[in-house]
Amino acid sequence: MTEHDSAAPAQPNTWAVHFPGNLRWTNAMQIVKGMTPYAAVAMDEVERVGRRLKARAAEADLDRVWREEWAAMADRVAAAADTAAAEGRDVTADHHYMRAGNYYYSAERFIPPGADKMAIWSASTPRSSASRCPTRGRACPPISCAARAAAGAPPSCCSTAWTTPRK
Q: What is the residue extent of each domain of the chain?
């Protein structure tokens, strides 16, 4: 045992209860954090959103605050993805698009079905040719078929009868 083991933490651990007193936000943040081991989100980006949300927790419309902060992070990450795609860095673009899509998904969590929810969903769909299936030409999941094909793996959106992509 070291001296650090017996010392009380300076601040309580907030991993499980990120927003004390706000079960909705805490639960939704746990869902986002649960994506971390799969590289579907970046913990630094999640923590930055969490800090901005805590700073705005006294505002009247908490659903709007949640949407704005997650959408702002999604927009930032999607812009980085667009830049990477324009530079031909498809794998980097795909990783960013996947994270941006999950942040848009988080942004729409508390929005009732309707036009506002659909607007966020539309922003989360793949935007680059890097996210187009080389065999079907349709939008792919965030990790694109092009990246999977480059690695010699079948695209995730295609049937098991997938063959080598056309050159």
A: 20-130, 132-167
Of the chain, the end-to-end C-alpha distance in Å amounts to 61
Q: From residue 141, give the alpha-carbon distance in Å to each of 68, 97, 131, 145.
A: 24, 9, 7, 8
- Report phi then psi at 16, rounded to 5: -85, -35
Question: Cβ of 113: how many Cβ atoms within 10 Å?
Answer: 8
pLDDT tens over the chain, length 167 residues: 445 444 554 555 566 788 888 999 999 999 999 999 999 999 999 999 999 999 999 999 999 999 999 999 999 999 999 999 899 998 898 899 889 989 998 998 888 888 887 877 776 665 544 444 444 455 554 444 444 455 555 545 543 333 334 33
Q: Phi/psi at 162 (nearest 5 deg)?
A: -60, 140
**Amino acid at the residue 74:** A
Q: What are phi and psi for residue 87, nearest 5 degrees? A: -90, 5
Q: Centre a 10 Å sphere on the Cβ of residue 106 and count the other Cβ atoms it contains.
A: 25
61-65 own/partner pairs: CB under 8 Å, 24+ apart: 62/22, 62/24, 62/25, 63/110, 63/111
